[in-house]
Write a structure and sequence with these properties.
alpha+beta; ten-stranded mixed beta sheet; nine-stranded mixed beta sheet; about 25% strand; globular
């Protein structure tokens, strides 16, 4: 973080009710806190040990402030002061403004930028403030205080936008829905709560079938009011199979015994099939409940995401399919606790993406169920995935990673590296590439955009000697990133093309093999890597189209091991776009969709446009955390932007808007219920896009 250059805004001292050390909250923070609990970043100076801080209003325990460590605290509505217990004489407490303009002005006025004139100080303050702001937002996003603020925000959202679906499909518009529940390990209280939720459904065209073991206590059957109870011996899979056989509806949905469907849950699912007769699988969003059944927060899923489904089984909690398909596939007793995942995985694997719909509305509340698989089901889920894909499956925490092999013989990868001088920077990229990478079937295509320094040409000769499969393509035109890359691709001989910035350092052996394996899968087109800043925070974990009315890297500046939204940064996933700083694309896909657009997007937007064109053509874009590299972002060209440069970027983004409508686009791998001005998937105050059934198409 850049707090060494930018100090906090120091708060004025104010007495507390007990006469201890206190500090007054400025009016701007009091005003912002009126709209709900507000998370702020505090920093102290003048103390050698931890101090306890507390606000004069609100509930909850105080925070602990550590020396030299920024701390996120939650400002309750109505607070006016912060009390600091045991503060030594001279102790100071401050906070960091997080608004872009406010932080830059504060940095300019109070930052530690010595011996700089006003114009250079303004530029230095802007660079430092931009970096610090990213770090502050990442810090807040991961703090417990933020989760409390998000919970309050979700409660307000829920009041208006959960259970608000008013349409009810006519009986003939969509088949009847059969809800299947294994009640073998349920409690009577949970079954009764589920029954109560189903009793108030707006769409009554459903049945509830509950399967119980023959020796179940009578209280279980009595609690399942309104259900048809069937008995079956064996485990959960056998009981659900018996319930499936007994169903009468044309659609089936496996419902957890402790689930609390929203009042419009049945209506949402039947409406998806009514609107889209070709629909063969429909799912909806969830909310997590506490032990008492009270809502905590929502779980917003992407549109269908094959790689995420393999890794975490995310849609198995509330997804419906035709009864005929469920009967044909069957529930495999060998899959045990993962039988529903196994069935849905086999079903989805045979479907085109266009027949899988996601309804971005909360349809069910569930207790517990963190992201991924429960301990009792993950081994069975790994076995099911291994059987289907024919590969070994690795268990990583609560998630799965299929170990896809690289093809034999290994396809040649043409690594295209654009550069202009900066030999020391390029040397790190190329030497680490050659020394560290375990996948050896690659050639290096250096595209030299007007280098003049002798050290650069000496490096070219050294790399050719070190890796003979190296060529240098000369380009003496003005900087135009797409044109430079396209020249390199034209000279490439490989079946796969890797675009690699000259400011990227390879730090692990298996990165390229992972990307090649994923790019070799059926339907794949583009693969992106996980990139870290030199301070080991996240630079790129995938691009969300439509963020900030354009596109952006979500969870930038978060810790390298940050899980992201619902653990999505820990697993492979389909996305709409990835950065060209390290982008692998099959040559046949490149030829089919066309090269980078050097006319409209000379400096910006070109990689996003390439990925969106790949998606439009039906190819997958995949991001993987199992290919991690360092990215010294903008090191080769610098971060300073002239007025002319900014004007060019603005024009390119206007062209992006004209083609892809990014100002209103809701990325299918994001959610209209999440804030499109947040890098950290914050809860939106109101839906920010259509909430009808959607596919993964852009």
């Amino acid at each position: 973080m850049h707090e060494t250059e930018i100090p906090p805004l120091w708060l004025k001292s104010a007495s507390t009710a007990t006469g201890g050390t206190g500090f007054a909250l400025p009016p701007v923070l009091r005003l912002r806190a009126r709209r709900g609990a507000l998370a702020i970043v505090l920093a102290g100076a003048g103390a050698d040990g931890p101090l306890s801080i507390a606000f004069d209003a609100g509930t909850g325990a105080g925070e602990t402030l550590l020396p030299g460590v920024p701390t996120v605290a939650l400002v309750p509505a109505g607070a006016t002061r912060i009390a600091v217990a045991g503060a030594p004489p001279g102790f100071r407490l401050g906070y960091y403004p997080v608004h872009k303009v406010a932080l830059k002005l504060h940095a300019f006025a109070n930052g530690r930028f010595e011996n700089l004139g006003l114009p250079r100080r303004w530029r230095a303050a802007g660079v430092a403030a931009r970096t610090l702001r990213g770090a502050l937002h990442a810090l807040v996003s991961a703090a417990p205080a933020r989760r409390q603020a998000e919970a309050a925000r979700y409660r307000a959202f829920r009041t208006r936008f959960v259970g608000d679906f008013a349409e009810v499909a006519a009986p003939g518009a969509a088949p009847r829905l059969s809800l299947l529940t294994d009640g073998g390990s349920a409690s009577p209280a949970d079954l009764a709560a589920c029954a109560a939720a189903l009793a108030v459904q707006t769409d009554r065209n459903f049945e509830w079938v509950v399967a119980l073991p023959s020796n179940a206590p009578p209280a279980l059957a009595e609690a399942a009011t309104g259900a048809r109870v069937v008995t079956a011996e064996g485990g959960p899979a056998a009981r659900l199979a018996a319930a499936l056989t007994a169903t009468e509806g044309g659609l089936v949905l496996f419902l957890d015994a402790a689930a609390r469907p929203t009042r419009d849950a049945v209506a949402l699912i039947r409406d998806a099939f009514a609107q889209h007769p070709d629909c063969a699988l429909a799912s909806a969003d969830e909310e997590r409940l506490d032990d008492e059944g009270a809502p905590l927060h929502a779980v917003y899923h992407p549109a269908f995401n094959r790689h995420l489904m393999e890794a975490s089984g995310y849609l198995r909690r509330f997804a419906a399919l035709p009864r005929a398909d469920a009967l044909r596939l069957g529930l495999d007793p060998a899959a045990g606790a993962a039988a529903v995942f196994d069935l849905l995985l086999r079903h989805a694997s045979a479907l085109p993406e266009s027949s899988i719909r996601h309804v971005p509305r909360v349809a069910v509340g569930l207790k517990g169920h963190p992201p991924g698989f429960a301990p009792e089901e993950i081994a069975a889920a790994a076995d099911a995935l291994s059987r289907l894909r024919g590969v070994e499956v690795e268990t990583i925490g609560r998630h799965l990673r299929p170990l896809y092999p690289t093809p034999a013989p290994a396809p040649l990868v043409s690594i295209v590296v654009p550069t202009r001088d900066r030999a020391a920077l390029l040397s790190v990229a190329l030497r680490s590439l050659i020394a560290v990478t375990s996948y050896r079937a690659f050639e290096i295509i250096i595209v030299d955009n007007g280098s003049v320094e002798p050290a650069t040409f000496a490096l070219f000769d050294e790399i050719k000697a070190l890796w003979p499969a190296t060529r240098v393509v000369r380009d003496d035109g003005d900087f135009n990133f797409p044109r430079i890359c396209n020249l390199g691709v034209d000279a490439a001989q490989g079946d796969m093309i890797l675009l690699l910035n000259n400011d990227v350092e390879v730090i692990e052996a298996g990165w390229l093999g992972e990307m090649v394996a994923l790019a070799s899968l059926p339907g794949a087109g583009v693969v992106g890597a996980k990139l870290l800043f030199p301070d080991r925070t996240i630079q790129h974990a995938g691009v969300i189209a439509g963020l900030f009315r354009y596109a952006d890297h979500w969870f930038a500046h978060s810790p390298a091991d940050a899980p992201g939204y619902e653990d999505r940064l820990l697993v492979r996933q389909n996305l709409s776009a990835v950065t060209a700083a390290c982008l692998l694309i099959r040559r046949d896909v490149w030829d089919a969709i066309g090269p980078l657009d050097a006319e409209r997007f000379a400096e910006d937007c070109n990689d996003i446009d390439l990925c969106l064109r790949a998606r439009r053509a039906g190819y997958d874009v995949v991001w993987t955390p199992f290919a991690t590299l360092l990215h010294y972002e903008s090191a080769s060209r610098g971060k300073k932007r002239s007025r002319e440069h900014r004007a060019r970027l603005k024009a390119q983004r206007a062209r992006m808007e004209a083609i892809w409508h990014t100002s209103t686009l809701v990325d299918p791998h994001y959610s209209p219920n999440l804030d499109r001005k947040s890098l950290f998937a914050a809860q939106a105050e109101a839906p920010e896009g259509p909430r009808g059934p959607r596919t993964g198409e852009v």
